[in-house]
Design a protein that fits this description.
Blueprint: H1 27-42, H2 44-47, H3 49-60, H4 64-92, H5 94-111, H6 118-135, H7 138-148, H8 153-182, H9 184-205, H10 232-243, H11 247-262, H12 264-277, H13 282-307, H14 312-333, H15 340-352, H16 357-368, H17 372-401, H18 405-423
Helix pairs in contact: 1-7, 1-8, 1-9, 3-4, 3-12, 4-5, 4-6, 4-7, 4-10, 4-17, 5-6, 5-9, 7-8, 7-17, 8-9, 8-13, 8-16, 11-12, 11-16, 11-17, 11-18, 12-13, 12-17, 13-15, 13-16, 14-15, 14-16, 14-18, 16-17
Keywords: Membrane, Transmembrane, Transmembrane helix
Transmembrane segments: 28-53, 65-85, 97-117, 123-142, 154-175, 187-206, 249-267, 287-306, 318-336, 342-363, 375-394, 406-425
InterPro entries: MFS, MFS_dom, MFS_trans_sf, Proton-linked_MCT
Length: 437
């Protein structure tokens, strides 16, 4: 009798019995670790846009608004690709989608080395890296969490979300040093190599589903691997059409759009040039962003822990309120050198950077059940559209007014609005999807 490999067992085959508890570390934690390393490697591309604005402005004489437009295209496509990527992972598997996305990121980043016109920046960095990064978006973390974990989902979500901050911590000082001493091209090549280096880890170590290795999800019971879902694009749009008829979707999308506007769109893209406007060296400003990454890891993991224990919508309200207060004070803190009040802002803001992700994913899961990963992909799309709009508007505001002050104040007010929106999300028992919506 021939023994069957669990990874190739069709979904109609008899389910193997779950292995007895042996005291060993569950395979789900190794999958989460591979996901963590993957997101760290891919995070290099997210560290670069804020460092490119001044060098590209000086070399090509492109306006900050033009450069910010390329960044905004990147951010928008990052978000709009995410929900389709979640459905493609259901159809073709996590490994194939993520490995291809990493190669697209690598190709788009290295192609910028030879660009001579601004439309090429939009194509290479905006379109190619945007599409690739969208498939590596937080829907990747949500898919791993939903498939491999039943218990500790909030904690794992926090850890995987923090991986992006860890990548920022690793790459930002290096990339800023390269830009400062060797120009922006070596930095772009470094981003390309970092994304490419992660591909073997994904292909060799990542598994799509616990049933591939004959296991139950961590903290759950064994279930057969579902058959590949056909019609990924149709399913993605069907889920969207059902979700938009529910109030919580608009509240979650609205709050997350403000989240993206006040993090990726504003601080990640424009903090370095804004600090440089006040006389701070680029390396010092980039170092402060890296410190944000340190405390982002702490804050996001803690947020995942809190999400397992406290009501998610109240956590969101607190996070947005605190972020808004910090942004209102930032214009008063920018100076040629780093001083204690600025350090306090960096620590405070860093703890809150993506602490919003675990409770947002938890609310999607509570409201939309098995469709939650795709719904979160659309909510993430709103996050990136918000980021794209503010990345562009902030660049235009800098060109028009000579400073970023008006953008900091407006972003603080938006955070206050997001806090109010989070509080009016109604609680609902988890469902099997959107059928009951």
């Amino acid at each position: 009798m021939t023994q069957t490999d669990p990874s190739t067992t069709p979904s109609t085959a008899p389910a193997p019995a779950p292995p007895a508890g042996s005291g060993r570390v569950h395979r789900a934690w190794f999958v989460a670790a591979v996901g963590f390393v993957t997101i760290i490697g891919a995070a290099a591309f997210a560290s670069l846009p804020g460092l490119l604005i001044e060098p590209l402005h000086e070399e090509f004489d492109w306006s900050r608004g033009t450069i910010a437009f390329a960044v905004s295209v990147n951010l928008a496509l990052y978000g709009l690709t995410a929900p389709f990527a979640a459905a493609l992972m259901d159809r073709y598997g996590i490994r194939r989608v993520v490995a291809l996305a990493l190669m697209v990121i690598s190709g788009g980043s290295v192609a910028t080395v030879w660009m001579t016109a601004s439309w090429q920046l939009v194509l290479f960095w905006g379109v190619l890296v945007g599409l690739g990064s969208g498939s590596m978006a937080l829907s990747f973390a949500a898919t791993i969490t939903n498939r491999w974990f039943t218990a500790r989902r909030g904690l794992v979500t926090g850890i995987l979300t923090a991986a992006g901050a860890s990548g920022q911590l690793i790459f930002l000082p290096l990339l800023s040093w390269l830009v400062e001493h060797h120009g922006w091209r070596p930095a772009a090549v470094t981003v390309s190599l970092a994304a490419l280096a992660v591909v073997p880890f994904v292909w060799l170590l990542l598994r799509d589903h616990p049933a591939d290795v004959g296991l139950a999800p961590y903290g759950g019971t064994y279930a057969q691997k579902p058959a590949p879902a056909a019609g990924a694009a149709r399913r993605t749009l069907t889920v969207l059409f059902k979700a938009v008829r529910t109030g919580p979707f608009w509240l979650l999308a609205g709050t997350f759009a403000i989240c993206g506007a006040t993090t990726n769109g504003l601080v990640k893209t424009h903090f370095v040039p804004a600090a440089h406007d006040h006389g701070m060296p680029v390396t010092a400003a980039a170092g402060l962003l890296a410190v944000i990454g340190v405390f982002d890891v702490i804050g996001t993991v803690a947020s995942g822990w809190f999400t397992d224990r406290f009501e998610a919508r109240r956590l969101l309200a607190v996070y947005y309120a605190l972020r808004g207060i910090s942004l209102l004070f930032l214009p008063l803190l920018l100076a040629p050198s780093v001083h204690p009040p600025m350090v306090f802002f960096i620590v405070f803001y860093g703890l809150d950077w993506v602490a919003t992700v675990p409770p947002t994913i938890a609310l999607c899961r509570e409201q939309y059940g098995e469709d939650s990963a795709i719904v979160f992909g659309w909510v993430l799309a709103s996050h990136q559209v918000g980021a794209a709009v503010v990345a562009l508007l902030a660049g235009l505001a800098r060109d028009a007014f000579g400073s970023y002050d008006v953008v900091w104040y407006a972003s603080g007010a938006l955070c206050a609005m997001a806090a109010l929106m989070a509080m009016v999300i109604r609680r609902r028992p988890a469902t099997a999807g959107l059928a009951a919506a």
